[in-house]
Automatic annotation (TrEMBL):
Pfam families: ABC_tran (PF00005). This is Phosphate ABC transporter ATP-binding protein. Gene3D superfamilies: P-loop containing nucleotide triphosphate hydrolases. Residues 1-28 are annotated as: Disordered. One of its GO terms (biological process) is phosphate ion transmembrane transport. PANTHER family: ABC TRANSPORTER I FAMILY MEMBER 17 (PTHR43423:SF1). GO terms for molecular function: ATP binding; ATP hydrolysis activity; phosphate transmembrane transporter activity. NCBIfam families: 3a0107s01c2. SUPFAM superfamilies: P-loop containing nucleoside triphosphate hydrolases.
Length: 298
């Protein structure tokens, strides 16, 4: 396994994995000074670790989907998960906000922290966790409701009843998803009447409306045409100013374009290399990663 497997790519000093399965990861505050892929304003400064895994194994019944994954993901960055089909990328994403809880066959060993809290502790409410860690899926999946009600959905569940507050929050989320100008005059129209790219931005608005800290995106552009995909890519860079974005993508050019850091999973669910995106694509440490990136397999 590569030495890069366990480190936070923002700081070589975190290369050693922390020990003790019940303790939060050390070195939570990390100095960064790295060259990264997407946005020069995020290339320097401090980055807290916001999500981390230590020795994470995930099984579906007897089949192991993730093997001993240790990783520290910094906040306000775009972190891409890449690797061939079936290597466990989506499983890892679903582990972060406990969406795997909904799969009866899924079983987890090891530790997964959101900030310094193990999300699998008994006192963690998965619904509350998912408010902090929102998710956007591969195919746009607006509810069969108005644009307004789609975005207001999570806020109403959270108990925001005041119409003025709701109006402001809906506008803020739609602006954050770069959709406001296109829909501000049709907020009562069905979300299903929007184009595919607009629907996906509506889903992003719905995900950010409750003001999460992390946005998980599972191949968010793979069902979209290139123009719509490009808009979402631009949006992702903006979203990382306010949120931490963790994105699964099959599109290596996309990972190279939009992410600051890249984690490469390979068959068997192992994280074989994790580093800043430029290093992964230009000078990977692991020959298997080089082979994957240059298209020799996967
Ligand atoms: N609900 C499930 N029940 C049983 N096995 C599953 C389930 N979901 C995933 N798996 C298995 O876990 C392994 C990892 O799957 P996962 O979807 O996480 O990989 P992936 O890298 O995201 O794949 P892809 O790129 O094709 O989406 C695969 O062998 C898959 O068949």
């Amino acid at each position: 396994m590569s030495k890069h497997t366990t480190h936070n790519p923002t700081d070589e000093s975190t290369a050693e994995a922390t020990s003790g399965s019940n303790s939060p990861p050390e070195n939570a505050l990390i100095e960064t000074d790295v060259t990264v892929g997407s946005d020069s304003s995020r290339t320097t400064g401090r980055a807290d670790t916001i999500v981390s895994a230590e020795g994470l194994d995930v099984y579906y019944d007897d089949d192991q989907a993730l093997t001993d994954v240790t990783i520290e993901i910094p906040e306000h960055r775009v972190t891409a998960m890449i690797g061939p089909s079936g290597c466990g990328k989506s499983t890892f994403l679903r582990s972060i906000n406990r969406m795997n809880d909904r799969i009866p066959a899924a079983r987890i060993d090891g530790d997964l922290y959101f900030r310094e809290k193990n999300v699998y502790d008994d006192d963690v409410d998965p619904v509350a966790l998912r408010r902090k860690i929102g998710q956007v899926f591969q195919s746009p999946n607006p509810f069969p409701k108005s644009i307004y009600d789609n975005v207001a959905y999570g806020l109403r569940i959270q108990g925001t009843a005041d119409e003025v507050d709701l109006d402001a929050a809906v506008e803020r989320a739609l602006r954050g998803a770069a959709l406001w100008d296109e829909v501000k005059d049709q907020l009562d129209s069905s979300g299903l009447d929007l184009s595919g790219g607009q629907q996906q931005r509506l889903c992003i608005a719905r995900a950010i409306a409750p003001d999460p800290e992390v946005l998980l995106m599972d191949e968010p552009t793979s069902a979209l045409d290139p123009v719509a995909a490009s808009k979402i890519e631009d949006l992702i860079a903006d979203l990382a100013e306010e949120y931490t974005v963790i994105i699964v993508t099959h599109n290596m050019q996309q990972a190279a374009r939009i992410s600051d850091n890249t984690a490469v999973f390979l068959t068997g669910g192992t994280l074989v290399e994790y580093d800043d995106t430029a290093t992964i694509f230009e000078n990977p440490a692991d020959d298997r990663v080089e082979d994957y990136i240059t298209g020799k397999f996967g």
